[in-house]
Amino acid sequence: PCREQIAQDLQAAGLIEKIEEYENKVGYSERNQDTVTEPRLSDQWFLKMQHLADPALASVEDGVIKFVPEKFKTTYRRWLTDIRDWCISRQLWWGHRVPAYYLPDGSFIVAETAEEALKLAQEQTPGLTAADLHQDEDCLDTWFSSWLWPISLFNGILDPDNEEIKYYYPTSDLVTGPDIIFFWVARMIMAGYEYMGKQPFNNVYFTGIVRDEIGRKMSKQLGNSPDPLELIADYGADGVRMGIMLSAPAGNDIFFDKKLCENGRNFCNKVWNAFRLVKGWEIDDNIAQPSSSDTAIKWFESMLSKSIAEINDLFDKFRISEALMSVYRLFRDEFSSWYLEMVKPEYQKPIDRATYNATIGFFDSLLRMLHPFMPFITEELWQHIGNRAEGESIMYASMPAAGETDNELLAAIERAKEIVNGVRGVRAQRNIPNRELLTLLAINENIELADVISKLALLDKVGSTAEKDPAAASFLVGTTEFNIPLLNNIDVEAEKAKIAKEIEYYEGFKKSVEKKLSNERFVSNAPAAVVEGERKKLADADTKLATLRTTLAALS
Question: Which string of b and e fits 214-234 if b means at least 16 CB within 10 Å?
């Protein structure tokens, strides 16, 4: 190598005072790992940037081009405020070759083709031939080609007045990563103003960067990137998309975990199974629509309308992952967990036509809302729905529009959900199976939406009473107490034994608190808040014991 030979020549000439070994970071060729990359100065081509940077900076600062999130304007401003001239030549054997042609006297001509270069050269030096010209071996920087993308995509360089470039330029939104703000985004904006006289796009949405579990950017060199085809094979294309997008707020990095894809796959399964449930119902045109189903349809119409308005607002603000989370919760929590439970017919019984048609309509709207995020499963299910009014594909179907929202009904259903959850909690605590119907009594209050609550909570009677039943299970919703008489649904002796055990526990707990409060040293030295906390524990234990003893007496 050159450096070794130079050292030998200097030593032979007696010009080296001493040789000392030291460690240094030396670059090696990526093609031949044993060959040191020797630095060598060479002429490079540069592009002056200041006149390009000024309008590009002003465009973003003045809000002509909007960044989402806005925090990346700081990065953009830092790059363009301290702009340096751009070295556009690269010592590569592929790419667009620098269109510079050297003459025998060392001067050069820049032209689009060799023929044009020869013509220009002959104007300076008559008699030159093509053999006298020598084209620069370097290629243009890759970004020097890429900065023309918004223009060249529609042939705007060669045919600047064609119909496509006039229609599509400037485009609406650019979606990209924040790591190439200067290398691509800024340069596209510069090229737009230089060659088209206007911005290339109106909004720039910066995604997060996908990183591995320890925060490293995924790359081929590190080998820390999963094989996307393997992920799709394991979790489905929609599952991978869904899982990652749910964890991808604008501009924030994503720490990849296969559990994200697993969550996406599970949701796809939920959508598919919900569709199978609905399409599996038998329809009877002769049965009337239950009042609970009519209420459920009106409620979900309002819920759908409210969600559409929220999602449209999130899209307008480029809060994509939040929009996805909103439609995800609408389907999983409201449609699948509540609405379908409200309207589904009894086991092996048919459903009325009006309820079925409304449910299929809701499913159609939900598929359209999910389609931008889950294109494959939504297309498949939409084909099975058979709606062809808007084309052969869901891609041509319009997004559902927001309508009227009945906020009173929404609030009433939310309260009904709390009551149903209270009944279900009692069933879980007392091990009462769903096949056993229960009675629900509100203390001094009429129960609204009793038909819906009765169906969801599996009740045979819903009513009101002025007297509390000490032996009944009870729960609160707001300030209203609800009683569920249990004598016919539980093992009385087992329940008495359970209560007796609880009484024994709280009596022991009460004694330990009383012992602590009887200690004058503790009461005198402990902070007032701690002492007050112990007194509250004592009062709570007394209240709990009184309730348990009353219940035990009622069961005896």
Answer: eeeeeeeeeeeeeeeeebeee
